[in-house]
Amino acid sequence: MLDLPREQKALQRAFNGSDDIVFRPVVSGDKRALFVFADGMIDVKDADLGVVKPFIGANGAFTPDLECMKALFSTVQKLEELDSGKKFVETVARGALGLVIDGAEKYFTLSLHCYPTRSIAEPPTSSVVKGPREGFTEDFKANMVMLRRRFGTGKLVFKPLVIGRVTKTQIRICYIKGITDSALVEKVVSRIKKIDIDGIVDSSEISAFLEERPYSVFKQVGATEKPDICASKLLDGRVAVIVDGSPMVLTLPFILVEDFHDSEDYYRRPVRTALIRIMRLLGIFFAVLLPAAFVALCSLQYQFLPQELMITILNSTEGIPFTPMTEMLIALIFFEVLGEASVRMPRYFGMAISVVGGIILGETAVSAGVLSSLTVLITAMSSIGLFAIPDEVGAFSVIRIALVFVGATLGLMGVVISAVAMVAYVGSLRLYGIDYLTPFAPLIPTQLGDAVLKRSKTDSYFRTPFISANKKRLDYGN
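-> structure tokens emitted (478 positions)
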């Protein structure tokens, strides 16, 4: 049985005398009790009207068990009975109202969460002209609701997990039973359960544990801020990982072609979508290879250039004190720093920095004879192409700098060999049983129509066959 004075002292020690933990003693007839809650994390008005007043008004005419408490607090949506004082402390710390009754066998917690959260708005990373504008927030329950309302079926499953010795972060594994492969769900759950650290504050920390090649420069876990995109991926047989405190929902398995698709691709006409996706592919191709090819031609292989272009390059580089490789590296690093500065500064200052830095400083560097105009042009074209795929900027930035070194030392042949080796490496990646370059390697002809181009919805009878356990789009299985 619980002794109220002893329990109160134990709870005060467990919360280390924290100022925001409120202990409110109440009396109901001959029964004494103690309400415990974190200030600002419960709805005080609902607690007074729906819990405290009914408890006092009962005048002790109740037994301290779960069924009687449910009848007494009939307006409370969720009431739990706990055996452990440690579990009771953790539940109260997450925002529940705790109740300790003198002489009772167990502790009680009531769900009356009410804490400040960000309102649902269009995510800054995935703005669209057409399509839904709502985005995930930092409240995992709101994120679950936004997904639940998109599925009129009981086959949408949220599997609860708690990670972090200190933070006790709430995580939900989301999938559609009958569409998602059960082996994939078990593998994701197993990996997350093995995480043993003090705390998780964002989903990106979870993604580091879910990657099968942790030292690869390529992204291996999908992430989205849009519920409609997440719902579409679930319908293809993927697993979503929702982390409390993070607006980014992770999706697994992830393949490279996903980053060539944009949020608005789902709502554009197929012809327009196909054109834009081809432009993205060309943008990345030029972003990665153009600086290295330019350095290789300027350093070692002038003979491959037309005479007029060679004369133009010689005239533009005349008087430049640096080698082509050094000059290109200076320009690339300058643009990288400029991009970081524009992101880190307040929005209006960032816009000014990007414009002033790109135009004024670039022009000044050319006029001062530090950089050639062609180098600035190539770097600008490469940087613009790089942002055609924002989620892969980090990986391709590293690759293009590495290729500049290769081009300066081994020429065009070295660039070509390095590019082939990179494609071979990416083709060797296999994550959660799915090849990273699917559907190109291995080749799946039925899926090529939706990789670079876009299939019409009227032709989309089958799901993604290499992900979903259930191939037919209209059959949800058992």
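The first helix runs from residue 4 to 14.
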